[in-house]
Specification:
heterodimer; A: 149 residues; mainly alpha; two-stranded antiparallel ribbon; 8 helices; 2 strands; B: 338 residues; Cathepsin B, Chain A; 6-stranded antiparallel β-sheet; two-stranded antiparallel sheet; 10 helices; 8 strands
């Protein structure tokens, strides 16, 4: 890439930093230049976040339809996967998977609920009343919409 | 407590931490491209059977930690590295080491990194930054990807040092133990030589289809099948993941290929064989091809194009790249470096 072609596209990096690019000057010698952002990768990031939002929304629907527990919703909301959630809670992966089921979730001890609320940084009310109070899911979805443009 | 530390921005975090810690210790001959090349940082791997953020796992650089380790080893500099079981002992140790006037590299997870934009805070645990001081409850942070220094409260630093999951840092901190080491040009030339040889090996001679130039070719074949296997939308998401691994904060552009091209030019200052300059141009070409592939990918994940022919074009790009890099590394393997 040539120094004169360093992309200066707007992106979420605007409030953070410019990035260093390695580029060639007119004599073909390498130097560095600062890039504000590249539209190609900014849109890759956007597309990834659109996907995350869909996943979170689908998880919410599943929970409201009684097909999954709120643990699934919050895992998707915090963009974790099962291994990551297992690592943060200290539970085995199959245990976490069981907790996605409405039945086992309802029978979960207070300590386990508390562990999830700690890891997800939510209140116990959010977890316990998610299914009966649609406002909870709505609020988190709105927050997600805001925080990622 | 603020050490007399100079923050220098780099393209890539591990390169930046390595360079900056060595500079602090008085070793001024190294810069990011040299460190990257001596550390044999250039790589490619596609791991089809694991997922990262629900997408395919790609890497364009060598294993985390290797660049720092290899560079210090090549220069005969011992490394101090410590992981911690307890958050308290991790913080206590950090405070003690700062009091001894030693800035340290810390491996951190970016999910809780408060100064990162929200959009970049994924569960990625192989980021590196330098702690160079403490003022009241705040640690002074030199994160090489940033233009300026920043700070983290003790609580914030603890959270990122103890992020969990794949490649969990476990509070790891590290620094080069420099004791009046004299770094001669001969030492650097030898380090360059070794770095090149090892990088040739990594890109050409690791057996199996998923690594090095074979890995790039393998990815090309897989990409051609993604549209049938996954549907246009999900295939587009996979391509977006590829582009992010290739271009997001830290590669200097073109999946580190431009940094490597810069390295070969730096290497020429120590080993004045003009072949190195010619081969440098090949890596610039590779980097440019990667970026062209990214533009093609963007057309697909933005929904503008998406036919099988468009995916085949992606495959073609990667196959070209594989050829260019293969030939470049083959030439490198034959260059007289003595």
């Amino acid at each position: 890439m040539k120094k004169k072609d360093i992309p200066q596209d707007p992106s979420v990096l605007d409030n953070f930093t410019k990035e260093v690019s390695y580029v060639t000057d007119d004599d073909g010698k390498y130097t560095t230049g600062l890039s504000r952002g590249w539209e190609v990768k900014a849109s890759a990031l956007d597309v990834s976040w659109e996907n995350i939002k869909s996943r979170v929304s689908e998880a919410r629907d599943k929970v409201m339809q009684g097909k999954a527990s709120p643990v699934l919703f919050f895992m998707e909301l915090r963009i974790m996967d099962i291994p990551t959630l297992a690592a943060y809670t200290g539970y085995w992966r199959w245990t976490v998977k069981r907790h996605f089921k409405p039945g086992p979730f309802r029978r979960m001890s207070v300590n386990r609920l508390k562990k999830y609320t700690e890891v997800f940084e939510i209140s116990i009310d959010d977890l316990r009343n998610f299914e009966t109070n649609p406002e909870i899911g709505e609020t988190y979805l709105k927050e997600l919409e805001k925080s990622s443009k | 407590m603020k050490l007399d530390f100079t923050h220098i921005q780099a393209a890539h975090c591990e390169n930046g931490v390595t360079t900056n810690l060595l500079q602090f210790a008085g070793i001024r001959e190294l810069n990011e491209p040299l460190v990257f090349g001596i550390g044999s940082g250039l790589f490619f791997i596609y791991i089809p059977f694991i997922t990262v953020s629900n997408g395919p796992a790609f890497s364009f650089r060598t294993m985390p930690g290797h660049i720092f380790k290899r560079t210090c080893k090549a220069l005969g500099i011992p490394v101090f590295r410590k992981k911690f079981n307890s958050k308290e002992s991790a913080e206590k140790f950090l405070n003690e080491i700062l009091r001894k006037n030693q800035p340290v590299g810390c491996q951190v997870g970016v999910y809780y990194l408060s100064y990162f934009p929200k959009e970049y805070r994924f569960h990625f645990n192989a980021h590196n930054l330098i702690v160079y001081g403490k003022e009241e409850d705040n640690y002074l942070i030199s994160d090489p990807v940033m233009e300026t220094v920043t700070r983290l409260s003790a609580f914030e630093l603890e959270r990122v040092r103890f992020a969990r999951g794949f490649l969990a840092p476990q509070g790891q901190l590290y620094y080069p133990v420099v004791n009046g080491n004299q770094i001669t040009d001969t030492m650097i030339s030898n380090a360059i030589r070794k770095g090149i040889k090892r990088n040739v090996r990594d890109m050409l001679h690791i057996p199996g289809p998923i690594v090095g130039v074979s890995g790039i070719r393998y990815t090309a074949k897989r990409i051609r099948k993604w549209r049938d296997k996954l549907g246009v939308k999900d295939a587009g998401l996979y391509l977006a993941q590829l582009v992010r691994m290739q271009e997001e904060i830290g590669t200097g552009g073109g999946g580190f290929r431009f940094i490597y091209a810069a390295f070969l030019q730096e290497a020429h200052k120590f080993i004045p064989n003009d072949e190195l300059l010619k081969i440098s141009e090949e890596f610039t070409k590779a980097g440019d091809l990667w970026r062209s592939a990214a533009v093609q990918a963007a057309g697909i994940y933005k929904g503008r194009i998406g036919s099988q022919a468009d995916f085949n074009q992606m495959g073609d790009y990667l196959e070209d790249i594989s050829e260019v890099e293969k030939n470049a590394f083959l030439k490198l393997s034959k260059v007289k470096l003595n």
